[in-house]
């Protein structure tokens, strides 16, 4: 009696086919997971940028408030700065922009950042005059640098300020 | 007795081979379906986060347009929280808070917190009186007084030092299917830039 063997050269082909198919499934699943893993860390960074953006807009409001309240002090300090005079150190313009822990420079009243609960690491503000027509019409550029977690963003706000005499 | 293969029929597979192949296929399919399920849950979670960020951005942009004079009248305590979980149709100067619904991402709740922000401006004031031979275009003629770190205080202590800055915080809250509560927040400021000075 002849032993019954698996005839032909296709012995065990079903298992091989299934293994190949399973491997293909594994590759597709891994690719899908990799796509998902790339997307996941992007969303928190988008939130960080949004938080930094709105915070910077708010600091710009405070900067414009200071500029609006003290125009004479600002103009003369700015012109003094632009002339490169060193008779006053720190310069009045540096004083106007503020030292650390002032409303325009990483303000931390009571040790807590003004941006709390948003995790603002640090921020700074700089003023620059684009055009100047002395108490008539000015173009003021305010640059705010915000660092939140490991993201550093610079925001530039341009203000076109004109003054009208009240009669 | 010899067993001859039937004429005209191609060789097949054994039952054991089929069972083994089927088992391997089932294990692979179960694993793949688990991956898909995991990925789908993650995608839905990210989508909810994106929808929450959109709502947060919308509310912050709307609040930034509200004048200081209007917002300050709404601050009856320091801070004051406008919250209405689960209830839609609540507005703060036209800015909706409370329940916010996204068709695909589900429901969110928006809180708005307002408070006055004390600020003190330090200035080294320009003094025209002591600016001998003053000329506006000659900086060497400029004279400045000593730096005053508390030149102007907008701290709300009294009528001469009123608040001029409002800090507003928007919080978007939602719950995940697994019961975990999540929230995102953003902060900004509105200054009193209206009127003459």
Which helices and strands, and how do they pair?
The complex is a heterodimer of chains A (167) and B (197).
Chain A: H1 13-39, H2 42-69, H3 71-82, H4 92-97, E1 120-132, E2 137-148, E3 151-162
Chain B: H1 15-64, H2 68-74, E1 80-82, E2 90-92, E3 95-102, E4 106-116, E5 119-123, E6 148-154, E7 165-175, E8 181-191
Question: Could you describe the 3D structure shown?
Answer:
The complex is a heterodimer of chains A (167) and B (197). Chain A is of the alpha+beta class. Helices cover 44% and strands 22% of the residues of chain A. Chain A has a 3-stranded antiparallel beta sheet with strand order 1-2-3. The mean pLDDT of chain A is 85. The radius of gyration of chain B is 34 Å and the shape is elongated. The model of chain B has no long low-confidence stretch (mean pLDDT 89). The interface between A and B is large, with 71 and 69 residues.
Strand order of the largest sheet of chain A: 1-2-3
> Topology as H/E string of chain B?
HHEEEEEEEE
Strand proportion of chain A = 15-25%
Average pLDDT metric of chain B: 89
Distance between the termini of chain A: 124 Å
Kindly report how far apart the N and C termini of chain B lie.
118 Å
How helical, in percent, are the residues of chain B? 25-40%
Shape of chain A: elongated
Secondary structure category of chain B: alpha+beta
What profile does the largest beta sheet of chain B have? 6 strands, antiparallel
Quaternary organisation of the protein chains: heterodimer
Instruction: Identify low-pLDDT runs of chain B.
Output: none
């Amino acid at each position: 009696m002849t032993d019954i063997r698996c005839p032909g050269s296709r012995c065990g082909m079903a298992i091989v086919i299934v293994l190949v198919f399973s491997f293909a499934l594994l590759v597709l699943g891994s690719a899908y997971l990799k796509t998902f893993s790339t997307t996941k860390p992007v969303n928190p960074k988008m939130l960080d940028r949004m938080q930094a953006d709105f915070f910077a807009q708010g600091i710009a409001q405070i900067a414009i408030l200071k500029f609006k309240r003290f125009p004479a002090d600002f103009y003369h300090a700015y012109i003094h700065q632009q002339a490169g005079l060193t008779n006053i150190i720190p310069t009045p313009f540096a004083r106007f922009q503020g030292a650390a822990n002032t409303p325009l420079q990483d303000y931390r009243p009571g040790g807590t950042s003004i941006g709390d609960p948003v995790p603002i690491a640090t921020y700074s503000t700089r003023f620059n005059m684009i055009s100047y027509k002395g108490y008539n019409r000015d173009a003021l550029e305010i640059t705010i640098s915000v660092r939140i977690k490991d993201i550093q963003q610079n925001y530039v706000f341009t203000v076109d300020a004109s003054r009208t005499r009240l009669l | 007795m010899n067993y001859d293969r039937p004429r005209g029929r191609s060789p097949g597979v054994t039952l054991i081979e089929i069972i083994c192949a089927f088992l391997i296929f089932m294990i692979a399919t179960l694993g793949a379906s688990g991956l898909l399920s995991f990925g789908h849950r993650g995608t839905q979670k990210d989508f909810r986060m994106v929808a929450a960020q959109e709502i947060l951005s919308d509310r912050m942009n709307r609040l930034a347009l509200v004048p200081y004079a209007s917002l300050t009248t709404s601050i009856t305590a320091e801070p004051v929280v406008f919250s209405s979980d689960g209830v839609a149709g609540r507005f703060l100067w036209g800015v909706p808070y409370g329940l916010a619904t996204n068709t695909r991402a589900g429901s969110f709740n928006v809180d708005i917190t307002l408070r006055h922000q004390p600020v003190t401006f330090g200035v080294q004031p320009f003094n025209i009186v002591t600016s001998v031979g003053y000329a506006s275009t000659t900086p060497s003629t400029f004279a400045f007084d000593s730096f005053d770190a508390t030149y102007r205080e907008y701290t709300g202590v009294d009528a001469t030092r009123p608040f001029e800055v409002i800090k507003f915080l928007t919080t978007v809250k939602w719950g995940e299917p697994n019961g975990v509560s999540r929230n995102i927040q953003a902060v900004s400021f509105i200054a009193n830039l209206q009127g003459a000075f």
